[in-house]
Write a structure and sequence with these properties.
The structure holds 2 protein chains of 2 kinds. By secondary structure, chain A is an alpha+beta fold. Chain A has 2 domains: 106 residues, 2-Layer Sandwich (Phosphorylase Kinase, domain 1), CATH 3.30.200.20; 207 residues, Aminoglycoside phosphotransferase (APH), C-terminal lobe (Aminoglycoside 3'-phosphotransferase, Chain: A, domain 2). In chain A, α4 crosses α8, α5 runs parallel beside α9 and α7 packs across α9. The N and C termini of chain A lie far apart (50 Å). By secondary structure, chain B is an all-alpha fold. Chain B has 2 domains: 44 residues; 95 residues. The chains are: A alpha+beta, B mainly alpha. The interface between A and B is large, with 35 and 39 residues.
């Protein structure tokens, strides 16, 4: 494996010579795609240099199967020219002979990824950090929703019809995941799906939607958000969808702050101020309920892959008992808890 | 939902053997991993979910469905009420506890679909409410049994 990757980097890094992977480490963050750090040494003008890269590889099976990492690579590459902070992506490789499955390469950026988990009862961020990161969180979301996706040639993502088209398409997408996962009846989930089918909101504005915009999916360095990560659910749709996802109870636990960053009112107000777009509370509520259904669908897909033996990743089995959290999140979004 | 304990234990064993063991260098620690694998292999087929916990859940579901059926009768949906009662009766005949649970969950879904179909009909909320209350109460009972999640440790290693 290392030899094949060394040969790959040697090709990619030419005219630098003698490129070789000196270390390949699987990173533990992320439950979906496989992420590796590759340390590469090479020579330039007789001088030895090193660089580190991040490789994002399609898993054989898992939470969002079937996988295709190429759309997210194309989106991240296109966003390099926008105001959205994104990692610098370099190359996409389809040939499974290189690293078993398709992958793409990014520059390794400095920083850490804060996780949306309260440890020992302490908040994830202190007040200063929360204020700075909250501002960056909204600013990047507004920048993302302002991207001219037609000019950026991102309509390959599939343009939903206006009206109820965006909401209907997303609901159908996640109902499809639930149906493919099979398994026993899940009445709490069914109740939410029945409600969503009756409550499809209308939007005439289609924007780029990250699809997983939350704490845990951005890189922080020097106290600021330096890159928005995890673009595997990016699509075109209703901008309120990202707000609904960010407001899902799972991302804040007992915290009063959405994604541990901002009160709901503050999030809405800053979004309106920076975007000039009115936050439609009813639409956000629809997408908050849909967020729980989507998260449930993701969990069930992972469980299904584990049950069928297509993944040996034990973290997929963890969702079996975490299903109670999911039901609580659905009940909370529906106003039952 | 619930994966069978044997499936979970087999997954733990496979993870230890294929993913953890290759990264363990200490001979003593490797010996303990092999000890764990042997123990898992021996208990794998002897473990099942606690019967009293599952019976409490099944009893709560059956009671909610009986109440919903009574409310269906009260608003003139006698055929639906009969179907719900028949499904609960059929579930009760199932010897396998997990099969009984699946049958009752399917019937809970059936009530939700009826309530959705009859959305706006006077009194339909009283049909929906017992099912909703059962689902919420069951969720709370399950949450109280859960251990503190280790997501941060899992992600950061």
């Amino acid at each position: 494996m290392i030899e094949r990757l060394s040969a790959y980097f040697a090709r990619r890094l030419a005219p630098r010579v003698d490129a070789r992977v000196t270390a390949l480490t699987r990173m533990s963050e992320g439950f979906s795609q496989e992420t590796f750090r590759a340390d590469v040494a090479y020579r330039v003008g007789g001088r030895e240099e090193t660089a580190s890269y991040v490789l994002r590889r399609q898993p054989a099976a898992g939470l969002l199967e079937p996988y295709d990492t190429e759309p997210e690579f194309r989106v991240i590459a296109a966003l390099a020219a926008s105001a959205v902070r994104v990692p610098r992506v370099l190359w996409y490789e389809r040939d499974p002979a290189v690293f078993e499955r398709p992958f793409y390469v990014m520059e390794l950026a400095p920083g850490t990824v804060p996780l949306p988990v309260i440890v020992d009862g302490k908040p994830v961020f202190d007040d200063d950090a929360r204020a700075r990161l909250g501002e960056d969180f909204v600013a990047n979301l507004v920048a993302l929703h302002a991207v001219d996706w037609r000019a950026a040639n991102l309509d390959f993502l599939g343009v939903p019809p206006t009206g109820t088209g965006a909401a209907a398409r997303e609901l159908a997408r996640w109902e499809g995941y639930i149906a493919r996962a099979g398994g026993p009846p899940r009445p709490m989930l069914t109740e939410a799906v029945l409600w969503l089918r009756r409550a499809l909101p209308v939007t005439d504005e289609i924007t780029l939607v990250h699809g997983d915009y939350r704490t845990g999916n951005f890189l922080v360095d020097g106290g600021r958000i330096v890159a928005i990560l995890d673009w595997e659910m990016v699509h075109l749709g209703d901008p309120m969808e990202d707000l609904g996802w960010a407001c899902m109870a799972l991302w804040r636990g007992e915290s009063p702050y959405m994604c541990h960053l901002l009160e709901r009112e503050r999030l809405y107000a800053r979004y309106e101020e920076l975007s000039g777009r009115r936050v439609d509370h009813a639409r956000v509520h629809f997408y908050e309920v849909l967020a729980t259904v989507k998260m449930a669908a993701i969990m069930l897909t992972g469980l299904h892959a584990f049950r069928e033996g297509r993944t040996r990743d034990l973290r997929m089995a963890l969702f079996d008992h975490q299903w109670a959290y999911m039901r609580a999140a659905i009940a909370q979004a529906r106003g039952f808890l | 939902m619930r994966l069978p304990p044997a499936v979970i234990l087999a997954g733990i064993a496979r993870t230890l053997e294929e993913d953890v063991l290759p990264a363990v260098e200490s001979r003593a620690a490797r010996g303990l991993v092999f000890t764990t694998l042997e123990m898992l292999a021996n208990v794998q087929d002897l473990v099942e979910w606690r019967a009293d916990v599952r019976e409490e859940e099944l009893g709560s579901a059956a009671a909610a469905l009986a109440e919903s059926a009574a409310q269906l009768d009260a608003i003139g949906l006698a055929a639906d009420a009969a179907r719900v009662r028949a499904a609960v009766g059929a579930a009760a005949q199932l010897a396998d506890r997990e099969a009984r649970g699946r049958a009752l969950d399917a019937t809970l879904e059936k009530v939700l679909v009826i309530a959705d179909r009859e959305h706006g009909r006077a009194g339909i909320a009283a049909v929906h409410d017992p099912v909703r209350a059962h689902l919420v109460n069951q969720t709370v009972r399950d949450l109280m049994r859960l251990q503190r999640p280790l997501l941060n440790r899992i992600s950061q290693g």
